[in-house]
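Record type: monomer structure entry
Structure origin: computed from sequence
Chain ID: A
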Amino acid sequence: MPGNSFGSFFKVTTWGESHGPAIGTVIDGCPPRLPLDESMIQEALDRRRPGKGGITESPRKEPDRVQILSGVFEGMTTGTPICLLIENKDARSRSYDAIKDVFRPGHGDYTYLKRYGIRDYRGGGRASGRETAARVAAGAVAQVLLDTCGIKVIAYTIEFGGIAARQMDLAGVRGNRLFCPDPDAAKTMEERAREVRASGDSIGGIVETMATGVPAGLGDPVFDKLDAELAKALMSIGAVKGVEIGAGFKAARLLGSQNNDPITPKGFLTNNAGGILAGISNGEPIIARAAIKPIPSISRDQDTINTRGEPVKINIGGRHDVSAIPRIVPVCEAMVRLVLADHLLRKRAIEIHE
């Protein structure tokens, strides 16, 4: 199966399945002499791991303890491939026995079988959200590189089930379970999540990611545009169905005089470009928003077919989140970090040869 690696200079390969013994990642291209230990990765993993008791979360309890198997010596990266391992401790494969021959609506069951002729029905295999833990671990390593030049990345929920955040208190994002910058909206969002869970349904939302301290000059002007790379990175997350940068779709309803960001000797006056012009960062904060679809596993009767093409009804029980939010928030952060780390190294490679 191709497509398991991401990046060019800072290259990440994830491996493992939802119900296999473990998942993990191999990071190739991380520079040497960067401080790194397991605790620096664990903090990010703790924010996405299942079983913490949040209002939207699955009761699957995974400790998600990361192990560094290679690429680090005496607390410093060595420049060789970094291998990270996360064991699966609470997988219950028998929960999927009853639906192993049924295609779940909204999942990749049907398309995987058409593509490969075989599929791992236990939790979706590689298509499971479980794979994103490896991305978060890799993103934490990327952040160590970004720290060397003051780049910070934060993601937060700006909409959930049609309820929008009205305030933008980024300092308080970690103060509620949905990582919402509006504490009042967060309470309403949690109430909505309870209602949806009680009805056996699921819910989606919008996650915004902001990168600050990004220097001007990261990216390329044609196929490897920084915004194109960010869009691919975020769209590679299973629950994401749309991405916009800066003003995004709103730009289609503006005049050029409204959408252009005026430039002064002190910098840009607005940021409709979302920190990127002609595929290259302009020094302003990079803003990307991802539309998150509702979790497809719901406890309601749905029409589908089985592997013999016969119509059947399915009601998916088991342990499932009511929303990919908030666990997807650190995943969005991780993917933006990976893109920025890769392009930071690309820029450094050019500078060395100037």
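Annotation 1: The CA atoms of residues 71 and 82 lie 4 Å apart.
Annotation 2: The chain is about 25% helix and 20% strand.
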